[in-house]
Amino acid sequence: MATVNxxxxxxxxxxxxxxxxxxxxxxxxxxxxxxxxxxxxxGPPGTGKSLLARTLCEAITxxxxxxxxxxxxTTPEEIFxxxxxxxxxxxxxQRITANKLPEAHVAFTDEVFNANSSILNTLNTIINxxxxxxxxxxxxxxxxxxxxxxxxxxxxxxxQAFYDRFLLRYIVQYIVEDGNFxxxxxxxxxxxxxxxxxxxxxxxxxxxxxxxxxxxxWQLLVNIRHKLQEKSIIIGNRRFKHxxxxxxxxxxxxxxxxxxxxxxxxxxxxxxxxxKEIGEIERIVLSISNPxxxxxxxxxxxxxxxxxxxxxx
Length: 313
Description:
The protein is of the alpha/beta class and 313 residues long. It is 50% helix and 12% strand. The protein has 13 helices and 9 strands. It has helices at residues 2-18, 23-35, 49-58, 76-80, 85-89, 117-129, 160-164, 178-186, 198-210, 215-230, 237-253, 278-289, 291-312; strands at 39-42, 60-61, 65-69, 106-110, 131-134, 137-140, 145-150, 168-171, 196-197. Strands 3-4-7-1-8 form a 5-stranded parallel sheet, covered by helices on one side. It has a two-stranded parallel sheet with strand order 2-9.
């Protein structure tokens, strides 16, 4: 397994070299693949969201990739396949799913919350239960992870349940640093040198499930929950429960056989729903899981506040 672990770590390194200032989403995507969870990328068009998803999928030998831009006019046929005329003649309501989402291993759904309720309900069943009902017959889908993209977080209460299905959430912006911007302009090849097979992915998923969670980690999770509650940030039981799979995957990518406090830092990308909560959740999670990172964060904030005060004076 050490060799396979080296492969996935090398893939992460290569992705970081191509997709600059996106280390967080890259780690999140790899954790999602290792735990069969789903990721939401929030940000304007042209930030490399779909290219990142496609590049990662192409590094998985034998994996099928499905990508679609969803609108209120998108039809189920575009996502799940057209109806079989032969089946209709026999009184059956079956879809031909070849090259459509029900047969994909990695799916990228752009502007995912724009779809109509019928499509969203089917997507919800796929990512929550791993099932696609074809002529009312439940079929297990091979989907490893769905990557949703959106410009805006949905405010409609009817969309909250679907929004909650994306365990990892990242706000993606345009490149900030000039040096990284120039590297992006000069990059022409987005094919990774390292690849990994679906079988190796399955092997790693089994190894992730075996990662041990020591007693001190359980207590740290309780401490994080209490600190959040003190700030009136309430996290549902299901989100905390599902977060364990991501924490274990993060530990695996960090080369740990059991979860360490450092591995809990990825909770900052899981526990927020409203962007206004991000700063407070990050401070709480890092102060408990990774005090060194928390100290650096506080120092950065202090320096920033000092600069702002001097400018005002």
